[in-house]
Amino acid sequence: xxxxxxxxxxxxxxxxxxxxxxxxxxSCNLRYGNLTIWIGPEVPENFELVTKLQExxxxxxxxxxxxxxxxxxxxxxxxAIPKTWxxxxxxxxxxxxxxxSRSQTSAQIWVRNSSPSDPYVIKTTPCGFPGxxxxxxxxxxxxxxxxxxxxxxxxxxxxxxEWAKLRWGTFDEKARAEDTTKFYLHSDRSIFLHLSxxxxxxxxxxxxxxxxxxxKQRLFDNSCVFVPSKQPQEKTxxxxxxRADLPYVNDFCDNGDDVTPEMKHDEExxxxxxxxxxxxxxxxxxxxxxxxxxxxxxxxxxDEPPALPNFTLLKGFDRRIVLVLDxxxxxxxxxxxxxxxxxxSNFIDTVPMNTWVGIVVFASRANTLAxxxxxxxxxxxxxxxxxxxxxxxxxxxxxxGIMKGLEVLETSGPRSLRGSGGSIIILTDGLEHNNPKINxxxxxxxxxxxRVSTIALGSNVAKDLEWLASVSNGRTHAASSGQFGIxxxxxxxxxxxxxQEDNFSVGSISILSQEVVIxxxxxxxxxxxxxxxxxxxxxxxxFYQQKPAPLIAIKTxxxxxxxxxxxxxxFFFTHxxxxxxxTIRIQGNAQVxxxxxxxxxxxxxxxMRVQVSVTSYQRQTEPLVISPALLCRxxxxxxxxxxxxxxxxxxxxxxxxxAYVGAEITRPLSTSGIVDTKFIELxxxxxxxxxxxxxxxxxxxxxxxTMQGRYNVKVTVI
Length: 718
Prior knowledge:
Blueprint: E1 7-13, E2 25-26, E3 31-33, E4 35-39, H1 47-67, E5 73-74, E6 76-81, E7 96-97, E8 109-111, E9 120-122, E10 133-136, H2 138-143, H3 155-168, E11 183-186, E12 189-192, E13 201-205, H4 215-220, E14 224-228, E15 237-238, E16 249-251, H5 272-277, H6 282-287, E17 310-315, E18 320-326, H7 336-350, E19 356-362, E20 366-374, H8 378-386, H9 398-411, E21 423-428, H10 438-448, E22 451-457, H11 465-471, E23 476-479, H12 488-495, E24 509-518, E25 522-530, E26 534-544, E27 551-555, E28 561-563, E29 571-576, E30 581-589, E31 593-601, E32 608-618, E33 624-630, E34 643-651, E35 654-655, E36 661-668, E37 675-682, E38 697-702, E39 709-717
Parallel strand pairs: 3-5, 4-6, 4-8, 6-17, 7-17, 8-10, 15-16, 18-19, 18-21, 21-22, 22-23
Antiparallel strand pairs: 1-39, 2-3, 9-10, 11-12, 13-14, 19-20, 24-32, 25-31, 26-30, 26-32, 27-28, 27-31, 29-30, 33-34, 34-35, 34-38, 36-37, 36-39
Helix pairs in contact: 1-3, 7-8, 7-12, 9-10
């Protein structure tokens, strides 16, 4: 396969606490708000599916209320339907919304057309950490227990079981798939891994039903299985993470002297949950979650949830982004102004069609360069680029830039979306010297529901940037661009906002992003691969700082070479001298195979440093996508830290195995901005810290911290 996209994330080692971004916003009495359900674009129009989803979530809310002992329920739910669906029936009129806040752009529940039909959670994290999302099939939502492999299970019980994995970080209380037997020795008896010892049933031999399995056979013969009784029982048993279809299994297991035998957790059983959670019960893990730890959200008096879920139907949306750019005098250092203009120009050239983009600049105060403008053509992109300034002003007030960005979102663009939501991307290279400051804008950012992502350029940057991104569900990036020649980081930071900025649209896929040194009077070829899943609207961009510009050409899989002056129906070459970018657009669908961009340095006495970027869009087949993450983003530096870097590699919803996944970490070496890079391989072998072998999630510890500062992590698939 071709190299998948990379992403850049930033690890900031300066704070004194260990932060996690939880995907829901619980308020008092733990009513889960901002739960978003995304119906995939391949799902045919069917508003009965929406009605059934509402019924399922309502029942699940009541089940969770009971399971958490009257502590939690679901309150506000967004259901995002595909843009291709028609007008909803009149019965939905009261719940239709055109607004999308920052907390609603990452769905926690996906409804997709793919096997299997039973619900499951994508969970790449250790015990106690939340999963990525819960996947439901339309068949499960519409037909419930008739479509599940666990016949007779109430759908809300199954969803509640998966919720425990998604929200609270538990695991299945079953044997691992690779285990040859599902029995283990417990007090000299062979016991089936069903967690609650009092559950009764029969042990049968699947290959020979008339031949019972004796105590010895159970431990070695994988044909021996335990068939629990499905007869109603007077008592309630645990655990729901074992079987949801048994009518008497309706709770989570627990431990302690006051726990009844029917509810007691078996810590000896070699289940997936025990292995990952070190023998702790389901309830023991849940109690340690911030939702309930230290007495948070005690039981309510009511036997039913205080309110039913409130549903909002969202049919498509227009993406709105305001670029908030630093033009203080420090941006003159190391050519940063030129690098910023180049990166922003490239961002505007590659932002998806029908996106609304605005531009704000700030120094001691902020000014609007462009109100929200819809990207509908190349002319619209060029008009926005002409608004970019090339001058600097004294002073730095990041807060003024944020407030001006909110003003642009509130007063321009589609009228139906002006009330809230949207995205702001802030780039700055300095500390705050003028009011308002970042801290002065936090409440307004929260109220407006905007997602703020930040790019810290250089080493001496305001420390509240990452906090701002954290409280608004944004991304954080660090770039040392311009100071020590690592120009690619700034381009990659902007580009990452195109790459699946949300669940509801698919952006460009980064195939290649690399700095290249072209020796004097020589030629270099950089190879990239196009596979069958990508190749639409492929764009090659070459960024340069030295003049004269390099000569460029494109080499096809048939070994044909086309030079920059040869415009054809297949290739369109452009040169934007004001931003120092050369581009090649491959018209239509690029042919599958090995391509190369050819770079020539005509200078006879000077080497040349350029950056090469290749992006493309998916065809009908879903592309390979890599989604990296860290288990923590900030902590106190002592010199003995270890964090987990992991990356989920998949094509559609299918795991991609046996890939080489590497992480490149840029580390600070001094307070003056000197950095170096370290490479580590991420592995999908099930060995610590990897949670499960061969699930497409590649993991590794990173321990080589050098000092307090920002660490940039780039994950690449080869």
